[in-house]
Amino acid sequence: MRERWSEPILAPVDSQPPTVALDFERLPESEMLARARGFRDELSRRRTVRDFAPDPLPAGLLDLCIEAAGSAPSGAHRQPWTFVVVEDRAVRARLRAAAEEEERRLYGERISDEWREALRPLGTDERKPFLETAPGLIAVFRHAYGLEDGRKHTNYYTQESVGIAVGVLLAALHRSGVVALTHTPSPMGFLGEILGRPSNEKPYLLIPVGYPAPGCRVPDLVRKPLDEIRVRV
After folding, report:
1. Structural domain range at position 84
2. Tens of pLDDT, residues 98-140
3. Separation of alpha carbons 109 and 116, rounded Å
4. Does residue 85 sit in the same domain as residue 22?
């Protein structure tokens, strides 16, 4: 039997912020394990894709996945993120041109031999056609500080908070039946300029989203097994 329960609502006092009842459902252990196993197995099939079909996404799909990302925890509940869905074709062409210019400099001048060797199995280079061919494109921005009525306020743990939100977003996209790519052109300053973001929003990530192109192939990679990533103390 499933058991539903809620924490009691505590009467607010001067030193205590308002609270609400926790909506929580305690599941049978067998169902807990089945859900965890199923989620693990589903995410184990997630792969980064660079070759997208142009087929359009269902209306509202990206918004639903971004709403899921917005449920992520954040430092002091500042929610220091903005997700820009880029639909304008001309803007996407500008983003591609700017990204490829930076990537040409990265691969040609800035990258070390060690870095280049690490990237070799992935087959990456300065060409980024997916910034135009993928039907969906999400630019993620991190709020380095808050702005309210022209006044600054401090945000906390912004890198960690946005990283968690992006992880939720990638899981939500995979769960909805699409593929995605995490693209970090270096440097990314052009993103804020082209997309018209305020000075407190710092570029964090570009995520093309869509369906894999027919015949799409991905690198033959092996993920580390549990015993290499989990330590018991």
Report:
1. 49-214
2. 999 998 888 878 778 898 888 887 878 888 999 999 999 999 9
3. 11
4. no
